[in-house]
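Blackboard transcription, Thursday session:
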Amino acid sequence: MIGDIVSGSETSKIILIEDSIDNSGRSLLLSYAVSLSQRVDEVHILLFDVRSQDTYEAVKSLGIQNIRVHDGSKDLLQWNKTPGLGLHTDVKTLILRGRASPGTKSVAIVIDSLSPLLTHTSPPYTCKTLHGLISSEDLESQVLQVVSLLHGDLHDDHSLSLVHHTCTTIQKMVPVTTPLTMYCCNTLHKKVSGKVIRITENFNLLEDFRVMDVSEVKQVTKSIPQDSNEMDPTANLPFNLSLSDKEKEARSQVILPYTYNKERQDSLLAKSVGEGKIFYQPDEADDFDEEDPDDDLDI
Amino acid sequence: MATTSFQKKARVKINQIAGTKPSLFNNQLLVSSGVPSLDNIIGGGLAVGTVCLVEEDTYGNYSRLLLKYFSAEAAMTGHSLVLTSGDQDPSQILKELPAPIIDDPGEINTANSAEQPENMKIAWRYQHLPGNQLGHSSSKFGHYYDLTKVMDPQLLTSIKPVLIGPEDLERGCNQCQELNPKYKYLLTRIQKEIEQGGHSTTQHTDKRNILRIAVHSLGSPQWDECGGLDLSHEDTDFSLPRFLLALRVLMRSAFAVCLITIPTHLFQIPGYVGRLRKMCDTVLLMESFAGSDKEKNPAFKEYHGLFHIVQLPRLNSLLSHMPDTLDFAFKLRRKKFTIEKLHLLSELSNT
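(Written on the board underneath:)
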């Protein structure tokens, strides 16, 4: 699953990588950036974090042409009034201004990270910014994907739940389960069709940030123990409780007292109101004597 | 019995509004919600002049489906429609409405009876009664839809739906003290629609029509709503309950029905959701099994989620309608979405 999402075979508009101090997600973010650079005309990386200098160095060392880095980490809140990226700048105008070639059709945005935005502004503002980035208005080209990093241990559950509500894929970095792989992440992917997939996978990243060796972590669930040695109570009895075929046939021939009987059915369907009709059907035990018993009386 | 073939001796009203019927229990005017199985559970349909709150499931898919059925029903009965969404363009929702099944219900009846396994030997008197799925609905109230097909856009344009999308909300809202500006804008728009369409009870028109208002995902972060907290994250922001109160006041004096979906799982302030519920009339909660542990539970194998009736209104009476059970579940099949009584399978051996 993670290989599909990174390579783009699974479409997802807003991807969120949630990491923590113990499990870093920055390398996964870079692998997204690399994969996107092959699929879109321009990739814009927005840096807000203090640590994002590492990202900057890594991207520069890769030397990919169509990745453009906007560094906003130096003056986040624009107290020094530096031009360029800050928390409150309109990202789209910035991208438009920095556009090298006018003929770009598709753009992708990678954000490292979303945590300063969530800390300094309200969660609805962050959600609206994310949602606004994906729409193509104000920008002449189509935004294919927005990938952002978020440090899960910096924020409270409420803000995180609001951001999760806005994103279509949430990848949470978790501790690795096997010693063979370097990373492990728990992915929640909301497909366009409405289906929701939740999967935990181990994977490796190569030096050029390609995803390799994806293996799923199977959850060990406690299954209800199948009672395989359930005693069959009819087994060791001195008398026979089962029926042979002939006996079953004989049983089905028995006429039960309230079963379907053609005369009764006809009377019900005829629904004759006002006439009390009595249908008498004698049983074998009944002694149906045609004679009137009162004939014996000699009065 | 959930479905009843009882029909009141109809004295034809002089001004009978299309797509409505009087309730069998009280004299409330009812409107179909679009899903006939839902109508049966909540007492025949949604009462005109009320607000129905649907608490969304975690990923919002099924509540959006209910909204689509509601809007499709508007197109079928010729009611006016106002559709709002903060998350996406409402015209996108309109493009995905299910197409109606135009066959008369008689055909569906015979198809189902052909599937009945064998003649009942002892319970033969019940053989002619309808099975579980078939709801008894008279022809002009409550339609069946096919989810695999999309509704003809011609049918929609004939009712001239009013769409309020996220851009309209951004542009139209002005700063407001008591209320979140976007909610205020929505209220003024709804009030305008009621007056312009002649739906208010104070206006006298020849041909009365019902206004259906469908609000998608109210209170999501796109509406500047921080889960009930105000900007300082200290106090509670009471905009949403105030909006619902004002909306209910508008509804009570108009021939209109409102269906709102709210992602209440995002509100984590204790008691806040309770306030929202008290401000609305009918409250339904959809709990989907997608991505949760309940998906693997064998008792819920056939269903896609649980359907809870949280609240039913007491309109001009002392009692609300009480369904015979409160355990309902919904299932989304390829063509149909139904809400049924939760049946536990008899195969479960260890229960």
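Lecturer's comment: The first strand of chain A starts at residue 14 and ends at 19.
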